[in-house]
Give the backbone structure.
Amino acid sequence: GSGTDTLLQTDALLKSFGGFHAVETVDFAVEAGEMHCLIGPNGAGKSTLMKLITGTHDATSGRIFYDGQEITDLEPHERIRRGISIKFQVPSVYEELSVRENVRLPIQRFLSGADREARIEETLDIVGLADRADDLVGDLAHGQQQQLEIGMAASLDPDLLLLDEPVAGLSMEERDEIADRIQTLNTERGIAFVVIEHDTDFVAKIADEVTVLHQGQIFREGPIEEIRDDPEVRRIYLGG
Ligand code: ADP
Ligand code: MG
């Protein structure tokens, strides 16, 4: 997509864990409908930045604006209702429940109205798991679990969907399927994405804009063609 309105803006956002700055004075912006990838070495602060945006972590200082309003002090469920949804890095499905039961949980919790059952079935269709609806999530392949979690996050009608490493450990074929799913949700529903991913081929395939995080700070921003050839970006990945 190609939005021009700022959907999300952080202002000097900082998160300290016992004096260690995991995220340090970050000004991060996402345009409406944009496909934005967030990259950077392990420990750069990528997951922490996402958790600040969703309210999973409270900011130590700085502010967060969403859709023109400050959301810095809003509870996570209030941010979800305003249109921010996330798939965490660590799986957050119940393996001992069925696929349909998992899909039902966030829809029941966050959506009101009589069309919730229809939304559950629609979500199962979208992620290609309608024929596995009664199977336990623990019996799904890893790629299907990732599809399920993306579908669950997308079922809440977000304007901004944060995906923390949705293709880590997946095969090339599974990665392509996830890329297709993300692009379909972006183009057909206008959802803006922030996707954390290390594989630059995957990033090149989906991203309009790339932000490189390093030691809690924004190191580079720009199109992937500039970022991937940047020797300083290569250096920080090699631990320099
Ligand atoms: P990334 O997702 O880029 O790999 P994280 O955001 O998970 O990085 O972590 C950034 C830094 O903050 C790391 O040094 C990590 O150890 C530290 N960190 C993350 N979460 C916590 C926490 N809850 N308590 C203490 N330190 C944390
Ligand atoms: Mg992480």
